[in-house]
Design goal:
94 residues; alpha+beta; Alpha-Beta Plaits; 4-stranded antiparallel sheet; 3 helices; 4 strands
Length: 94
Amino acid sequence: MIKVIARSVIKENHLNEALHIYKLLVSETVKESGCITYELFQELNNPNNLTLIEEWEDMDALQCHTKTPHFITLVGQLSSLEKELPVLIYKKLF
């Protein structure tokens, strides 16, 4: 199992637009083969800080995800609205 933590900071005055795009991204991604969970979280004390927490069956499923049309299009749209932080990818040991 693969776990991904993808954090971003949304630029001022762009939160609603970003949330709309993320909603589309989540709704399409959860339909993908190999996706176990794909959820967006918002920091309580700073609503512009968002975190995607993803679980994938394996690295092949994650790599396929990054090549889907919805991922490419929507992540491209988000890039102008956010400061993306490093994406952390983990494998389950126990």
